[in-house]
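Researcher: Re-running this chain for the archive, since the previous output was lost when a drive failed. Same request as before.
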Amino acid sequence: MSDTTEILEQRLLAGYRRQSSLYERALRVIEERSSEPNWAQNLHAVLEEVTALEAEHADTKVGWQQTGRSPGPELRVVLERLGAQIQSLRAAIDNQVAEITARKERLMPEVDDFIRRRWMLNAYGQSAAKS
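Model: Regenerated structure tokens:
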């Protein structure tokens, strides 16, 4: 491996390790959501950090890909870990979306009933005021 390729791979390793740390943080945010009312905003903030990190390392990725080399053993391990973390995070987010959707569906009849009662009270109030 040439010095340039080695430098690029080391930069990628550092970036992917930071990214892995952020994904771990994102998973913790989801796991601890019951004790944190702002968990969705916190998750969004962590994912924004991942996005910024991706942009920061875009040139390094392109440069490394242009070398045509396969990842070394250390980079391969980090990439596999990232893949597993992303799948876990995706599954956790999908579960949350399903849970929130189910909660919304359970609440809709109550909300409809509340709106209907409110409308009836308003209508009754208007007709009583006219009498």
